[in-house]
């Protein structure tokens, strides 16, 4: 994407409480620096009000109250800024973080919850039975998907493929990282994919494939989904290679060629995300995955995920 496009559609801004910058790794993303004093005041207010992670899990309205605490410190325009970025087809994503104000994981959850509830509503995450999921990646693993397997490529995909509910956005936050080399978040904006037109206009592009989740996801339903669909006259995608069940060799070849094309696209980003930072993406036109780690018996990474639907505006 050219600098001219970014400037034309720019949401860059600076206020007394936060600044929206162009991301140093990609003109498709923004980075939001929230003032350290604002972050500290937010966390202090949450603590004063007895807001714990357990309280957020048990009391859904408390998650909206967390958002309100943040808005009191940033101004209501902050909510409009987040929504404008996530809905903007030219960008659709941002990073932000706690800027080393805290290293407490519960604070990470509270902060991320305040952000997501300004954009929409997280879906129930059946894998953990909560509105969010925390999971680790270690040296050894016996899981039934690539999510926790450290030493292989976690291929590009979108979330929510195997559930019958909207999954419009995705947040991923790095909670812990020790003895980790590699494992970068791999991202691809659909409009930067060189062969988008080839695959989105293919006869199988709108064919409804069957998706089934592995047992670890705790989802028993089977859903049928088209790989490509349109939103506001722009192509969007719903795809993951692990859980899609083609019925013919022709269908399997289409899916393999599609995946291979995305994995080898020159516009793919390998995002560096520090501990305490998060990335939030529009799940309709951003694909994500993870690079392989270098082998280390002491490898330890923990991530948090929230994903859900947009607020009705």
UniProtKB/TrEMBL annotation:
Protein name: Protein CsiD
Annotated keywords: Iron, Metal-binding, Oxidoreductase
InterPro entries found in the cross-reference section: GlaH (IPR015038), TauD-like_sf (IPR042098)
Gene3D superfamilies: Clavaminate synthase-like
Organism: Oikeobacillus pervagus
The organism's taxonomic lineage, starting at the top: Bacteria, Bacillati, Bacillota, Bacilli, Bacillales
GO molecular function: iron ion binding; oxidoreductase activity, acting on paired donors, with incorporation or reduction of molecular oxygen, with 2-oxoglutarate as one donor, and the other dehydrogenated
One Pfam family hit: CsiD
């Amino acid at each position: 994407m050219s600098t001219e496009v970014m400037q034309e559609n720019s949401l860059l801004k600076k206020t007394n409480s936060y600044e929206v910058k162009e991301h140093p790794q990609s003109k498709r993303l923004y980075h939001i620096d929230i003032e350290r004093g604002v972050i500290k005041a937010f966390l202090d207010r949450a603590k004063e009000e007895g807001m714990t992670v357990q309280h957020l899990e048990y009391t859904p309205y408390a998650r909206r109250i967390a958002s309100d605490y943040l808005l009191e410190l940033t101004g209501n325009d902050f909510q409009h800024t987040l929504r404008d970025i996530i809905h903007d087809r030219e960008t659709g994503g941002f990073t932000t973080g706690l800027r080393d104000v805290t290293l407490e994981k519960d604070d990470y959850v509270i902060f991320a919850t305040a952000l997501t509830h300004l954009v929409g509503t997280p879906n129930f995450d059946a894998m953990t039975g909560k509105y969010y999921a925390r999971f680790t990646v270690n040296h050894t693993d016996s899981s039934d998907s690539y999510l926790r397997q450290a030493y292989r490529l976690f291929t590009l995909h979108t979330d929510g493929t195997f559930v019958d509910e909207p999954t419009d956005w995705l947040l991923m936050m790095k909670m812990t990282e020790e003895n980790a080399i590699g494992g970068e978040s791999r991202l691809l904006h659909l409009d930067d994919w060189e062969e988008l037109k080839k695959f989105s206009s293919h006869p199988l592009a709108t064919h409804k494939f069957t998706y089934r989740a592995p047992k670890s996801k705790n989802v028993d339903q089977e859903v049928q989904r088209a790989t490509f669909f349109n939103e506001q006259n722009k192509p969007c995608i719903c795809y993951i290679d692990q859980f899609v069940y083609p019925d013919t060799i022709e269908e399997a070849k289409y899916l393999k060629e599609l995946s291979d094309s995305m994995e080898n696209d020159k516009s793919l980003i390998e995002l560096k995300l520090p501990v305490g930072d998060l990335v939030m993406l529009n799940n309709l036109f951003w694909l994500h995955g993870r690079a392989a780690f270098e082998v280390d018996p002491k490898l330890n990474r923990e991530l948090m995920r929230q994903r859900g639907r947009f607020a009705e505006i």
